[in-house]
Amino acid sequence: MERIPTGIEGLDELLEGGFPRRRMILVSGACGTGKTIFSAQFIYKGAVEYDEPGIFVTLDERPHLIREDMLQFGWDFRKEEEKDMIRIIDASIAKVGLPSDEVYHMPESGFDLDRLLVEIIKAAKEMGAKRVAVDSLPALGFRYETESDIRKAILKMSYVLMKSGLTAVITSEIPEGSKKFSKFGVEEFVADGVIVLSYLGGGGPATRTLHIRKMRGTQHSPHIHPMEITRERGIIVYPIEEI
Questions:
Q1: What CA–CA distance (Å, rounded) separates 199 from 34?
Q2: Is residue 235 classed as helix, strand or coil in its secondary structure?
Q3: Which end of the chain has fewer CB atoms < 10 Å from its terminal CB, N or C?
Q4: Cα separations (Å) of 5 from 61, 175, 227?
Q5: Separation between Cα atoms, residue 228 and residue 34, nearest integer Å
Q6: CATH number, domain with residue 165
Q7: Are 100 and 106 in contact (CB under 8 A)?
Q8: Which residues sit opposite 54 in a β-bridge?
Q9: Residues spanned by the domain of 210
Q10: Distance, CA of 19 to CA of 170 (rounded, Å)
Q11: Model confidence over 183-217: pLDDT tens digits?
């Protein structure tokens, strides 16, 4: 199976070399566990270290705040955007009918999944993108009322992204201490892989953890691994024998 490097230090070694290419990976966790950093690192490292253009779709945070926050790790998104190695699609405020100042955005007429997928496909063709990150999936539930509708929407997204040749990282929120792996309880069944991020509190590298709950077609580590968010290297995942 063809693999795509994750850009997350220490993770590829737990996944037989990386994510299966052209698959959708769900990254879930409670508030503050590092989901946005994970997805941004996947896109940025892909562009800078592996020469793979990527698309970052933000459904919650404003793009200028993402650029500012990622600079603390030395990740200059604006520089890569100017090279057309990264595109940020702003879908954060279309849901409330406000205009965006971004070049690539959803119209203020409202959020629509089909229109968003068209924008992703268009960008992927124009820049030759290999990766996409969608942060975060619960925002898609804004217009869907039933579990069946949400599942169909996620299935549609997964199929369209796969047919476009994209490997996708999709984030989802879960309550602190929840036994669920996603916001709506259906995402993990549709996704090809599930990675759960946790924060145990107390400070230090061993307080944050990463667990590969599922990864189709892959022999992966079954253990809960300590991870750290560093200023110099972003997210680092450690082998459990090092702790």
A1: 9
A2: strand
A3: C
A4: 26, 29, 18
A5: 9
A6: 3.40.50.300
A7: yes
A8: 86, 131
A9: 3-242
A10: 13
A11: 778 888 999 999 999 987 655 545 899 999 999 99
